[in-house]
Amino acid sequence: MKLVMAVIKPFKLDEVKEALRAVGVNGLTVTEAQGFGRQRGHTEVYRGAEYQVDFVPKVKIEVVAEDDQVQGIVDAILKAARTGKIGDGKVFVLPAEQVFRIRTGEMGPDAI
Amino acid sequence: MPRLVRALHALERAYSPGHHGRWSARRRSALVDEAVRDLTEGVPGSVAVVALGGYGREVLCPGSDIDLMVLHAERRPERVREAAERLFYPFWDAGLPLGHAVRTVEESVRGARERLDVACSLLDARLVAGNRGLFDRLDDGIRRQLSRDRQAFLERLVADGRARYERFGSCSAMLEPDLKEGSGGLRDVHSLPWAGRALFGGRGLADLQRHGLLRAAERSALEEAEEFLVRLRGALHLATGKRADRLVLDFQPSLAEAFGFEATAGLEATDALMRALFEHARQVEHVREAFFGRLEAEIEDALTVEPPSGPEDVLGAFAASARTDRPLAASSLDALEAADLGPSPFRWTEPGRRAFLEILRAGPAGERALEAMDRAGLLSRFLPEWAAARCRPQRDPYHRFSVDVHLLRTAAEAAILLAGQTSDAVAGRAADAVGDPDALLLGAFLHDIGKTGRGGHVAEGARVARGVLGRMGVADQVREDAVFLVAEHLLLPDTATRRDLDDENLVLDVAARVGTPERLAMLYLLTVADAAATGPHAWTPWRQALVRELVAKVEDVFERGDMGVDRAAALEERKAAIRSLLAGDARVERFLERMPRAYLLAVPPEAAAAHLELVMPPLARAEVRTAASPGSRPGTHDLTVVALDRPGLLAKIAGAVALAGLNILSAQAFTTEDGVAADLFVVEPAFAEEIEEERWRRMRTDLRKALEGRISLEYRVVEKRRHYPPPRADVPVAVTVDNRASRFSTVVEVGAADRIGLLFDLARTFHELELDVHLAKVATYGGRVVDAFYVRDLFGRKVEDPEQTAEIERAIRARLGG
After folding, report:
1. Is residue B154 a contact partner of residue B295, using CB atoms and an 8 Å limit?
2. Is the ipTM of this complex over 0.90?
3. Which residues of B touch A46 (CB under 8 A)?
C-alpha cells in the first residue's frame, strides 16, 4: 500500500476530487496548507501597504491506495491539477505500512 | 431501593422523551423522597437528611444528581458515619447518581460564605427526614450569613452569570448550548429566586412578583422558559443515558422529533427546536437583566432617560446608551418598551435615522444597545424584517451564532475596523479608503438578512436590504453601496478560495463587478468583519492570504486603469451586443467567459460575433483557422488567425503573412487562459494589387507547413525582403521594458521603422527568449511602427529579473539594427 500525498492549488481541488473519483478513489483527506517551493513567497501591495507573503496557500490531499492503483491516481492528479504555470504543486508517493479502520479494527487493503 | 429504581424507570416510560417537564421532575423527586424516608428510619434524632440543589427544589431530571446532605450536631463521628452509610450506600449500589455531603450547621454556613455554588445549593435546601430543629438552624444560619452583606452576594451572583457566559456562551445564540450553565439557561432562571431568598426569605418566583421585583409577564416568561429547558434537558438525559447538559448537534434531530417540531417552509424541524430554545433563553436573559437592575435599584453606571414622547426618543435613548456605553436603567427600559411607535411598519424620520446610525457607529457599545433593543422587542418593531433573522440558527461548520447575533457582531466588527483598531495592515489601508462609514455599517448590519430559509440568501438579502434602506430613507449613494455589499458579500472569499487568481479575466471580472477602489475597500472590511463575527475558525491565515491576494490584484487593475466603472460599463455593453448578435447560440456565454477582456473591449461586437465559429470548436494540434474580409479602409483587409497557442506561434503567423506579400498595418494578438491564440491583423498588399483567394490559400498552406516544421520561414522572409525598398533610416529604434503597466505581464514597447517581416523578427526574438506573447498591439503610422507586447515567461509570470529584461532590450535592438 502507498500513501499518495499531493500539494495543489486551492482552486484545483474540485477537479482533482472528480478525477480521483473517476479512477475509483472512495476517500481522501483534505487539508488547507501553506508553504513555499520554487515559487517562493512574494510581496503584495495594497494601497501602499506592503506585506510579505512567506507561505503560499495550497491544498494538501492524501489518499491511501493499493500498489496497483497508485499510478492511476498519480496520473489523475497530474492531469487535473496542472495549469502549466508556476506553483502547480507536487505529488509524493510514500510506502504505507499498515492501515486500520478504527470502527471495526479491519486492517490492510480491507481498511482502505 | 429496587422499588425506587423500578418506579423511576416506570416514570421514564410513562411519557414520551419530550414530555418530561417540571411535573415529571417533581414526581421523580417525590419518589426519591419516599426512598430516603424509608432508609432513614431509625436514624438518630440528632441528624437531619437534607435535599440540596435541584433535588432541594424538587426538580430532578432523569440524569440529575441526587444531592443529599446529612446534617448533624453529633460529637461521636462513628454514629454519623453509620447514618450516612445507611443512607448513601443503597444509592451507590443501585447505580443512581448521588451527590453526597456530611456537614454540621457551622460547616455549612462557612461553606456558603466561601463558595457561591455551595451557598446557592443551600438556599434550595429542603428537609426530607430527621431533625426539624436542626434544619431550621441551618436555614436560619445561611440566610443570616447572606443577609449580612446582601450587596456582595448579589454582586457575586451577577459576576457568576458573566463568568458562565464567558465560559459556556449563550443558550440564545449558540448551536451547541449548555442548557444548565449557559447564559439564558437553567442556572440563570434559578438565580432570581436565589437572590430573592437571600434578600427577604421568599421562595420562588411568586414571592418576587409579590414584592414588586418581577412583572407578571416576566414571571410567566420565566416559568415557560424553565418548563421548556427542563423538558429539553430531561429529553437530552434520556437520549444520552447520562447527565449531559450540552445540546450537541447529534441529538438535535431526535429531540426535535420528540418535541413534535415539524419542518415548515424555510425552517427545518431541528432549527425550529433551536429557535424555540433561543427565544426562551433570550427571554431569560432579558428578565434576568431587568430583575438584577431593579434589585440594585441603580446599578452605578445605568443610564436613566426621560419617558419617551415619541419613537425618535426611543431610538435616541439607545443612541445615548451606545454613545456613553452605559446600559439603560430597568425603569427606563420599561418605559421605552411600552412606547407607541406609531403605525407599522415604522415611519422613519431624520432624527430617528441619525440615532440609529449613531448606534451602529458605536461598535461594541452599539452592539450592546441593539441587543437591549432586541430583547425589549423593539428592533423588530422598528425593522419588521429583523423578525425573520431573530433567533434563527445557522448550521455550518463555521457559524457559532444565530443569524441576528451574527449580524450585530458583524456591524460591531466593521465599526472596529473603520476606527483603525486592527493589526491587519490591509484592513487599515482599506479603512482609510472608505469615505462615509454608513454604507459599510448598514451593509454589515444587513448582510445576512436574506437568511430566511427560502432560497439563496444573497439575492434575497439584497432585495430585503433595498426595502429596509428605502424605508429608512438613507442617502441614495449609501443605499446603493450598502445593497451592493449585501449582494456581493461572498464575492471575495468565494472567488479567492475557489478560483484561479492568476487568471487575468477573473481578476478583471471581479474588478468590473466591484467597480471602484472604495467599494473594494468596503467589501474587504466586510469580509474581515463577517469572518471575525462568525467564529474563531472562519478567518484562518490561509483564507486571509487568498482573499488579500485577490484584493491586491483587483486594486492593482483599478490603479492601472485596466478596469473601472467606465470600462466595466463598456464591457457589459459589448457583452450584451455580442449576446444579441449571437442570440440562440448556446456557446455564447462560454465564449464571453473565455475571451480576454482586452479582446472584448478592443474588437467590435460584429467582428467578435464572427469569431465565435473560429474559436469555439476544439482545435487540433496543427490546425489553423483563418478568416479574411475587406477592411474598413479601401485596399485593406481584416485577417483573423486562430490556432492552439504554442511557443513562436505569433512569429510563424507573421512570417507567413510576410511571405504572402502582405504589409501588416496593425495587429492584435490575444490568448485565452486555456491556450487558444486569436490573432487579428489589418493587412494590405505591398504593391496595391487585389488579393485573390489563391493568395490566402497559399498563406494558410505556408503557415500550416511552418507549424509542422516542414518549411523554414526565416530564409524565405529574408529572400522576400530583397524585393522591397529598405526601411527609412531616420526612424530610431526605441525599446522599453515595463513591469508596472500590467499586473500579469511584462510590457515590451518597440518603436522602429516599418519593414516587411518586422513583426516576424520581433516575435521570433521573444520566442528565442522563451517568452510567450500574451497580447500584442501593433500599429503603423506612415513608415513608423509602435508596438506593445505583453509577454510572460515559461511559468506564466512576469519577467522581473533585471538581467533578463536588459537582455530582452539588447536582443531586440540587435535584431532590428541588423
Report:
1. yes
2. no
3. 426, 429-430, 548, 551-552, 555
